[in-house]
Structures are given as structure tokens and as C-alpha cells.
């Protein structure tokens, strides 16, 4: 009976250790990306028509010139000085071309007003090209604009929800040019880590080599892993990448404390440690009150009203004693030690800066 209890306890310990390891491990695709597989930004200039008097005014000269140029291409000759419509708005159109996108696929586009238009609700984006950084056209966009907000008002007041001068055309762009990306002729692949780290790179190499039972992976540096494609995957790298992306690796991160002084936010990493240190933190508050004492004369007298100002100043400082914060061996110990001081997150910002200056914070302090 006793041996069975010992066996059960041992199994629970092993299961717990395995669960902890699995909980800390993440997929390779979540911490690294294949070199060369990336998104590309597209941009273009166009016109949104069909607005209910909420388009660009006379001050947006480029809108009038664009309308005249568009009408001229359609066989209508018009003088830009004669154009005085308010149902057209000039916009910048942006989109993201995903990797491996093929000709004929559709993507969403974002439409943003660049003139003095008040609202793009109900408008239609006219056909316009989307270019990449190389100046080539990769897609064409056209369609109704969805703003997700509204704006209404009169002479005295207006009501606006969200940003009606920015909208989205769902599946509004058709891809016309593909970005070349051939994996068949490669004999090696490169993985780039999102957060370069030597320990993480070494662990990735060990996991990949253990998966293929041969040394196919090696780390070029802290952020690049080179993988030699095995002979059985030559010309067929998709199954190889699929198996590599799901491999689980436990990443190693630097000890870092991030502070945002504008919002009073303090974020600590798992590896943050502090040495034994004594802390005394108190708040100083100064209250100033301005009062006016008024002296009124007696009725039917020749006196006059006298006003004399008075200032009341109250200074109060918390009498906090010196507290010894013991050395923390885990993030939980650090949090418990700092919570024992009973300070607010904004006070923690000053405390962490002082601990770092004293050399007791075993982590990088980053202020954003």
C-alpha cells in the first residue's frame, strides 16, 4: 500500500514537471519568422465620391485638380475653376500585401481623408492603383467606404462618433502583381528571432536537431538560425516548414522592468531580482488655501467695506520608517516585498529608479 502511494506521488511530480515545461514552451512560429516571408505596404491616392455635402471645400485645390484630371480621362473636358462640388473628397489609400498573395486575391484597404472633408460616410472609392515602395502597381482598389462612425450637427453644435474621416473598403483591392518567393530551389532556410538571445538560439538548434536526428540546424548569431534542408525535403519544403513551425521551445528573456511614467504603469519580467536593501518612502503634501476676510461698516455710517486676504499653508509629510526589503529569488518574492511597503504604482516608479541607482536591481530599467 505504501509503495503504491509513493508511486502515485512520483507520477504526480513527473506530470507536474511536464506540465510546467509545456506551459513555458512556445511554438517556433511564435518567436521567429522565416527570412524573406514578410508583408509589404502599399499606398495610393484616390477620390471618394457620392458624399452628402461633407466632402472637400474650395481650399483643397488638389481635389479639384484630381476631379478635372479624372473627368478628362473619361472624355469630359472641364475647367477646374468651374468645379464647385462638395460631394468629393481626396483620400490616401493604404493596404498590406500579405506574403504568398496570388493574383486575383482580395485584400482590405484603409481610406483616410487628406483634405477638409467632414465625413466619408456613404461614399464610394473610385478605381485607383496601389503601389509598393519600388513604384510598381501591385493592386487596384474600388468600392464603398465603411466608416464605422458618424457625424451630424447644425449651426450651434455637432455630434461625432469615432472618426468619420477614416474608413475601410472590405475586400476592396484586387491583387494584380505577385511578390516572387520561391522555396523550391533553396538548399537552406533562415529563421530570424523576434527577440534575439543566445540561449534561445541554442535551444532552438537543439530542438531542431533532435527532431531530425541529424545536425541540420546551426546558429549564426543570437538572432539567426540556419537550417540545411534534408535530402528528403529537397523541392518540397512546405512539409518541412510545417513541422518546424510547430516545434516547441522555451525562450529565454532578459530581466527587464518597463516603466511608463505617463500612465503610472510598471511591468516586470520573470527574471527580475533585487538584492537586500532598506527603503524609506514618504509622501510630502502641501495645501495652500486663499481666504478673503471682509469687514462691513455699521448701517448709516460713513465707514467703508474693507477686504483683507489671508493665506493658510498646511504641510504634511508621512512618517514612514525604514523598511528592509529582503533579497528576492523569484518574481513573486519581489512583488510581495514591494507590496509590503504599501505604495501605489506611481510610487513604485520612483522606488525602482532609486533601487537601480543603488545597484540593487538586477535587471534593466526601461522608461517609455
Provide tags for this entry:
368 residues, alpha+beta, 3 domains, 7 helices, 24% helix, disordered N terminus
Structural overview:
This protein is an alpha+beta fold. It has three domains: 40-175, no CATH class; 182-249; 257-286 and 316-367, no CATH class. It is built from seven helices and 21 strands. The chain has helices at 2-24, 28-31, 61-73, 198-212, 237-245, 331-339, 345-358, and strands at 26-27, 32-34, 40-49, 88-97, 106-113, 124-131, 137-144, 150-153, 158-161, 166-175, 188-193, 217-221, 224-228, 248-249, 256-260, 265-268, 277-279, 284-295, 306-317, 323-325, 364-367. The strands form seven sheets. Strands 3-4-5-10-7-6 form a six-stranded antiparallel beta barrel. The chain is flat, with a radius of gyration of 33 Å. It starts with a helix and ends with a strand. Residues 1-23 have low confidence and may be disordered.
Uncertain segments are 1-23
Number of domains: 3
What kind of sheet is the major sheet? 6 strands, antiparallel, barrel
* Mean pLDDT level: 80
**Secondary-structure element order, N to C:** HEHEEHEEEEEEEEHEEHEEEEEEEHHE
Q: Roughly how many Å is the radius of gyration? A: 33 Å
Structure summary:
The chain has 7 helices and 21 strands. It is α+β, with helices and mostly antiparallel strands.
Secondary structure: elements and pairs:
Layout: H1 2-24, E1 26-27, H2 28-31, E2 32-34, E3 40-49, H3 61-73, E4 88-97, E5 106-113, E6 124-131, E7 137-144, E8 150-153, E9 158-161, E10 166-175, E11 188-193, H4 198-212, E12 217-221, E13 224-228, H5 237-245, E14 248-249, E15 256-260, E16 265-268, E17 277-279, E18 284-295, E19 306-317, E20 323-325, H6 331-339, H7 345-358, E21 364-367
Parallel strand pairs: 15-21
Antiparallel strand pairs: 1-14, 2-11, 3-4, 3-6, 4-5, 5-10, 6-7, 7-10, 8-9, 11-13, 12-13, 15-16, 17-20, 18-19
Amino acid at each position: 500500500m505504501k509503495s503504491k502511494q509513493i508511486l502515485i506521488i512520483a507520477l504526480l511530480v513527473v506530470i507536474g514537471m511536464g506540465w510546467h515545461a509545456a506551459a513555458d514552451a512556445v511554438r517556433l512560429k511564435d518567436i521567429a519568422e522565416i527570412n524573406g516571408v514578410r508583408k509589404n505596404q502599399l499606398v495610393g491616392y484616390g477620390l471618394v465620391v457620392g458624399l452628402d455635402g461633407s466632402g472637400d471645400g474650395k481650399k483643397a485645390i488638389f481635389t479639384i485638380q484630381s476631379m478635372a484630371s479624372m473627368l478628362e480621362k473619361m472624355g469630359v473636358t472641364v475647367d477646374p475653376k468651374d468645379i464647385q462640388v462638395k460631394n468629393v473628397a481626396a483620400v490616401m489609400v493604404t493596404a498590406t500585401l500579405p506574403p504568398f498573395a496570388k493574383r486575383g486575391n482580395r485584400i482590405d484597404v484603409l481610406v483616410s481623408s487628406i483634405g477638409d472633408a467632414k465625413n466619408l460616410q456613404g461614399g464610394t472609392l473610385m478605381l485607383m492603383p496601389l503601389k509598393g515602395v519600388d513604384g510598381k502597381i501591385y493592386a487596384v482598389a474600388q468600392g464603398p467606404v465603411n466608416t464605422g462612425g458618424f457625424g451630424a450637427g447644425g449651426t450651434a453644435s455637432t455630434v461625432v462618433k469615432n472618426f468619420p474621416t477614416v474608413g475601410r473598403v472590405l475586400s476592396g483591392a484586387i491583387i494584380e502583381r505577385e511578390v516572387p518567393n520561391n522555396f523550391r530551389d533553396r538548399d537552406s532556410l533562415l529563421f530570424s528571432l523576434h527577440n534575439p538571445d543566445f540561449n534561445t538560439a541554442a535551444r532552438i538548434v537543439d530542438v531542431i536537431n533532435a527532431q531530425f536526428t541529424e545536425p541540420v540546424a546551426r546558429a549564426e548569431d543570437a538572432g539567426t538560425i540556419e537550417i540545411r534542408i534534408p535530402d528528403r525535403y529537397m523541392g518540397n519544403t512546405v512539409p518541412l516548414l510545417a513541422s518546424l513551425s510547430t516545434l516547441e521551445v522555451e525562450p529565454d528573456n532578459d530581466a527587464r522592468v518597463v516603466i511608463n511614467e505617463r500612465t503610472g504603469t510598471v511591468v516586470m519580467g520573470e527574471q527580475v531580482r533585487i538584492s537586500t536593501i532598506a527603503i524609506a518612502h514618504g509622501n510630502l503634501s502641501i495645501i495652500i488655501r486663499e481666504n478673503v476676510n471682509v469687514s462691513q461698516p455699521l448701517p448709516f455710517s460713513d465707514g467703508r467695506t474693507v477686504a483683507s486676504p489671508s493665506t493658510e499653508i498646511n504641510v504634511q509629510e508621512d512618517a514612514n520608517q525604514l523598511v528592509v526589503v529582503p533579497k528576492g529569488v523569484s518574481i513573486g518574492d519581489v512583488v510581495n516585498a514591494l507590496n509590503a511597503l504599501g505604495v501605489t504604482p506611481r510610487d513604485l516608479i520612483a522606488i525602482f529608479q532609486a533601487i537601480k541607482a543603488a545597484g540593487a536591481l538586477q535587471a534593466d530599467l526601461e522608461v517609455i
